[in-house]
Amino acid sequence: MMQRYVVVDLETTGNSPKKGDRIIQFAGVVIENDQIVDEYSTFIHPGQEISLFIEELTGISNETVKNAPDFEDVAENIARLIEGACFVAHNVLFDLSFLQEELVRCGFEPFYGSTLDTVELAKILKPTSDGYKLHQLAKEENLDHSRPHQADSDAYATALLLLELKKKLMNLPVMTLKQLYRLSYSLQSEVSELIDACIASKLAKAEVHSPDLITYRGLAFKKAEQEGDHKDTGAKFPLGNEEKIAMLQNAFPAFEARSGQLDMMNLIHNSFETSQDAIIEAGTGIGKSIGYLLPAVYFAKKHQKPVVVSTYTLQLQDQLLQNEVPKLKKILPFTFQAVLLKGRSNYLSLAKFERALREKEDNYETALTKMQILVWLTETVTGDKDELNLTSGGQLFWNRLQSDGLTYAGLKQPWLELDFFERAKKTAAKADIIITNHSFLMTDLLTEDALIPKKGYLVLDEAHHLEQAASKQLGSRLNYISVKTILNRLGTSDQKQLLYKLDRMLLNNGLTDGKSSHELDQKLSDFSYEFEQLFYYLSNQAEKLSRSVSPKRLSFKIDDGRWGKAILVAERLVDLLGYIITELEKRLALLLNNESPLGKNSLFHLNDIEVLLGHLQDTRDSLHEFFIKPHEENIYWLDYTNAAPQHGVTLTVQPIAGSKRLWDSYFGRQKSVVMTSATLVVKDSFKYFKEQLGLENEPMQTASFPSPFPYKKLVKVLVPNDLPEINCLSVEEFSETAANHIIAAAQAAKGRMMVLFTSHEMLRATYHSVKDCGVLDEFTLFAQGISGGSRMRLLRNFQNFEKAVLFGTTSLWEGVDIPGEDLSCLIIVRLPFSPPDEPVTAAKCQLLEKQGRNPFSEYSLPEALLRFRQGFGRLIRTPEDKGILVILDRRIITAKYGTEFQKAIPKVDWHQGTISEMAEMIEEWI
């Protein structure tokens, strides 16, 4: 029998019919035989006022529904429309439950048929989408969606989306569909019925799967492209600038020669050829990426040695591979291979996934994640987790699937040929350019079995983060959730987790040592309880010290009397862990030394226990160092947020000067290291950067190529003169004053504005002052740490709204690329000095004091100047951009060091004025 679908969308006065909210628009689109055959929509009078927010969101006003029918008048039409159909909606639980309430209220039977949620379906069939809002999916699929948040337009777009998703489902091989069908019973809507119909249709037609796919052990995969042979072509690096310009102009007719970029290419080529190190600052607009990639490729081809390019952010890593490498392939007269290499945990272990598919006890999150991965396997050639858009539960489940190494050959063997990490290693071994990130690079350099050449050629982009990345890599973190997850996975002898399975394996092999598991269970229970007590105590102490809703970072020293109780608990925890680890090692040894061969399931369990054992050993070492025997050269601190008592605490340790250790041990041994960034110079010198890395006495080539942009024509800087000095007011008082200037600037700039803060506390206070006053109700406000979502999602949402203001902290000061009119006004609320009590800052300043040096002039000020330059760099990304920078911290004018900040950025016009003069100038300039 042919299935009839009715795709429904509602607009309502609010989210809860039980609290009196009502429908203001209903729309239904009927699909039969994969064709839209009917549509029905109507405005509905809600019998109450429509709020300004709903009017702004939907475009539906009180005037729109003034003469519309009541729900009672159209209820029969709606009930008849959906009768006998599959009820489809984008977030079906909301639309159906709202409609059910209204139908029952009017005396009609509720809907009892099947439901289909296009959000759920899209998550499964489009596992790599940026997001699953209707407007995002419609844009990706090029669907007609002209009036978002109006029910008729939303319902029609959802109907088109359903048809596209059905096509995607039909294109999957039957093997994958059968796996999806088995898992679909854990979902919230009847996706199983749709999959079942697709399987029946494909079997009836006896369809063969696509030639782009291969199948193995019950799974379907996208066939990996065979890489061609990239032998040396004998091409010589074009030393003359005219030759380079001609090459670039052939590929890009609009190319404008920039002397800085050409000189950068020559300097890097020379550094590689002469095995020298170099530090290069390349301002915005120089073309830094092509500036280092072009000489790197020529060198790699000539010498048949790979050049490794490392970045700090994943965003730049992807940009290099997706944008810059294809450009370079257009430019060069020969072929080359560039690959992306990440840490092992970024890749899917097919052996672990095959095993996970056999497990029956799926909750909603794991079933959904498995379904996403099954579809993704037909699309991905990398197996890289960053391609996937996983739920938070899916992220946790991934930890059981990641390629973190399988100890036993029998588990790896069947999948070696297809294993994603093994494939990435093989591809990297043949590549000319290996693109990676600082974190993986440093982890790899520290391992014996390194993938990256120990004596090779490196380009370190975003090099101003090197010191931070090195210290982080040599440090460690400990938090409540990660340890509790380990304990839950291990379980006790009667919880049917790993310890139970270990006991069963010992019993089945006749290997019991006569000891009962009761004592180990008791020690695990004691450890769990004591660990919980430790983190409750830490969070209580942190709350007393911070008294703030914002995240706090508190320095931790064991000789500080405030943490005495924590040290006593930690000592007991270390002893308990010692016992637990020893007992687990004994049990593992009994099994591994047994002559009887173990089955594959047993080996998987043993592998999981060994991984957990490693985590327990790391936990013991971290507790011992943090609370019992800290090292003088390390910094210890506690990050705290009061989101949940013990969940909000993370303990961190890192060396004060980690980069020096890494340079001396690893980077210094490379043939040539080129470090580059848009911001490395402080007061026309590389001295600060070199000191941070401990390179003061190392011979280095250095060069600075300033941005070619005519900033004087593109930027004005405004400093309000009717604001009090920031140090004279409390955070709350200054936030309230700053809020008035932010509101005036937003109105003058008509949104398209970013506001940068140095602390979450001030951001939160200012954001709420702006929001609560109601003047910017017509604007969409996004705030880091408040609005939710990742940094990239915040930025995408900010760019999707015309009248938008984005409030950001540390991570938005740099690495954010918003060209054109999407960002026209930038406000820096406070000069970006790190708080003196911030643990890393305090430790570095104390070290400088011990050396008889001035911590402010040699560390705090240079660091703030660099961050200020990074913040300024957000405003102008192309020569066509135009913008206003507003600085609310008057110290840039009044303090002695203020002129240093003024000199730190390119020459622009500076103005002072009142709040109204500021607004007038913004309006006029933009």
Automatic annotation (TrEMBL):
Gene3D superfamilies: P-loop containing nucleotide triphosphate hydrolases, Ribonuclease H-like superfamily/Ribonuclease H. Its EC number is 3.1.-.-. PROSITE patterns: HELICASE_ATP_BIND_2 (PS51193). ATP binds at A282, G283, T284, G285, I286, G287, K288, S289. It comes from the Bacteria. Signal peptide: none annotated. The keyword Nuclease applies. Keywords: ATP-binding, Exonuclease, Helicase, Hydrolase, Nuclease, Nucleotide-binding. GO terms for biological process: DNA replication. It holds the Pfam family RNase_T. GO terms for molecular function: 3'-5' exonuclease activity; ATP binding; DNA binding; DNA helicase activity; DNA-directed DNA polymerase activity; hydrolase activity, acting on acid anhydrides, in phosphorus-containing anhydrides. Residues 247-524 form the Helicase ATP-binding domain. A motif (DEAH box) lies at residues 461-464. InterPro entries: ATP-dep_Helicase_C, DinG, DinG/Rad3-like, DnaQ, Helic_SF1/SF2_ATP-bd_DinG/Rad3, Helicase_ATP-bd, P-loop_NTPase, Ribonucl_H. Belongs to the helicase family. DinG subfamily. Type 2 sub-subfamily. 3'-5' exonuclease. This is 3'-5' exonuclease DinG. It comes from Peribacillus castrilensis.
